[in-house]
Amino acid sequence: GSPAVASKTGGSRPSTALVLIVCGSLSLYGVSYNLVLFMVSKLGLSNAGAAIQVSIWNGVHDLSPLLVAYVSDSHLGRFKTTLGGSLIYFFGLALLSLSVLLVENKVPATWLFFVALYVIALGKGFAASLLAFGADQFDGKDPVEAAWKSSYFNWSNFSTSLGLLLAVVGVVYIGDRLGFSSALFVCTGVILFGIMVFSSGAKFYRYAPSLTGNPFARLLQRGSHKGDHSNLAGILVVWLGSVVYETMKTQTFSLFVEQAALMGTIVGGFRVPPASLNSFDPISVLVWMVVYDRVLVPVMRRATGNSRGFTLFQRMGAGLVMMTAAMACAAVLEASRLAGFHRERVQTNVLWQIPQFVLVGCSKVFYCVGLIEFLYDQAPENLRTVAAAMAFFSSSVGSFLSGFLVSITSGITGEQGWIPRDLNNGHLDYFFWLLVALGIANWVIFLASYKFKE
């Protein structure tokens, strides 16, 4: 409750928050990328059923930040909410590790498996309060700390991508070689380490007081003031577009992995785990972040006079195009894979998935960072956790929409339709083309329905 001493708190000291971001990202993606294959191979779900379950779970764990935003901004504050949520997350991972170990040893534990998954989903909401809490450590009125605060969002995105890369390269490999339970025990240990490091910096943090009342009500009250309706309308248009984007992005966790599982995974005498191709997503993010910041922005700044280089809408629009192109690549690859299998019984090499993952990663640099920056800019200072939660919420709705599309498609096309149990007898390429059509429609609406003056 005492005023923070600038020389002893905040600023660049509490980089421990970034450590927790890395650990949280690694553990989440370590679970996500092994999940669909475990459901198919060990729990006996169909390809469509596993994709639906993963989409629903992704939706729930991206919905929980809205609950966290309410608790954080109105009751506990961001530090306590982050710590409590991360402990729930740790408990869920420990339960999931136990349930998978039981299943691998032929002990029925499906109910415990799904309970643990949704405990993880509840705890994962701490990511929103952690993002806002990290930004609280910098004084926007101090020129030096204001520059650090701007860099913080880049470093938080970098930390998320680093955790994703470590998960795909390390945890997925462990899961493929030693079993999913071994991978989960690693994830559990990693998040515990992150919590301990984050807690160790408590005396160096700056703590913003929580406000009374409902943060969502405050947002609506703000929109009822004259002049704010256009801002809320602009936020709504952008947010709705992000839902379609997230629907396409969800495929990297499910259908991209199922596609890879039926491709040739022997490269140079080494077996490549199907989910490990996802490593090209974060690698692409890390490379394109440097290219964007050091090359594209300076060039565009000189050309347009805009301090950002690109306007936020140009940046997001480019990201939408790239994600749609990724779905088109996946569709073309699947059509080629099916043709080769049915004509000559040959397997297409899994490395042909690299272009679609690179495009997904590149689109994140443009769209995801642009979306967070847009929402953060439009939100009042006391609603920044809500702004972060809205970005997660779009991912949640997109995941639910993905599951809905898979379910409807399977229902309409039948058991041996587009996404059957054996994808060699289906037409997954048609489903990818459906996503391409949605992406094109979303991009056209994005351009036609809203023009925003930055």
UniProtKB/TrEMBL annotation:
Membrane topology: Multi-pass membrane protein
Compartments, as annotated in UniProt: Membrane
A GO molecular-function descriptor: transmembrane transporter activity
Keyword Phosphoprotein: no
Annotated keywords: Membrane, Transmembrane, Transmembrane helix
Gene Ontology BP terms: transmembrane transport
Pfam families the UniProt entry points to: PTR2
PANTHER family on file: OLIGOPEPTIDE TRANSPORTER-RELATED
Protein name, entry field: Major facilitator superfamily (MFS) profile domain-containing protein
Database matches in Gene3D superfamilies: MFS general substrate transporter like domains
Transmembrane domains' residue ranges: 17-38, 50-71, 83-103, 110-135, 155-175, 182-202, 312-333, 353-376, 388-410, 430-450
Superkingdom in the source lineage: Eukaryota
Family: Belongs to the major facilitator superfamily. Proton-dependent oligopeptide transporter (POT/PTR) (TC 2.A.17) family.
GO cellular component: membrane
